[in-house]
Design goal:
The protein has one domain. Helix content is about 75%, strand content about 5%. The protein has six helices and two strands. It is elongated.
Length: about 180
């Protein structure tokens, strides 16, 4: 069945650009535009996993990322506290094991969120036949895995570029597969 994809193309492409270059409110607006694009595609195809996986994945990924950054800060502050002796018994250092635990749990949460987003992108690939969506999802996931060694941020950035290219590569009208009942 031929469907009009122009709205999805524009909202998803602009949303991905905003989420990449913006900060705070601009990134949030970009995320909302991507969600709307995936919602429209979900309504069009009746494939609920597109929207659901992306929504849950991006929320978990965002929470995991914030917690991951907090975990890094806790690790560094814990290391700094261990290098100096507390001046009183009330200034006990943050246990390094706690800091590392926060870091690992939040990293795992972020990776799971990226996995769900990857599943969403792969489903979009199946429906639209645009392979760049699958590449973007895979790069998001690999970027999440590699975040512990910091190269993951670069891989995630490349994934964002592929997502932009994928959205803007969609034709205005196309035959798309509908969900199997």
């Amino acid at each position: 069945m031929t469907q009009d994809l122009s709205k999805i193309k524009i909202m998803g492409g602009i949303g991905t650009i905003l989420s990449l270059v913006g900060g705070g409110v601009i990134s949030l607006a970009g995320w909302i535009l991507i969600l709307i694009a995936f919602w429209e595609l979900t309504k069009m195809t009746q494939e609920k996993s597109i929207f659901k996986n992306y929504l849950i994945g991006s929320i978990l990924g965002g929470i995991g990322m914030v917690g991951f950054i907090i975990g890094i800060i806790l690790c560094f502050s814990g290391l700094a506290q261990y290098s100096t002796k507390p001046s009183s018994s009330f200034e006990k250092p943050i246990p390094l094991s706690f800091s590392l635990s926060v870091l690992i749990v939040c990293w795992a949460l972020m990776v799971f969120g990226k996995y769900l987003a990857m599943k969403s992108f792969k489903k979009v690939t199946e429906i639209t036949q645009e392979e760049k969506f699958a590449t973007a999802g895979t790069l998001y996931f690999i970027g999440g895995l590699a975040t512990l060694v910091l190269v993951g941020f670069l891989i995630g950035f490349v994934g964002q570029i592929f997502a932009i290219l994928a959205f803007f590569s969609l034709p205005d009208k196309a035959e798309i597969k509908l969900a199997q009942a």
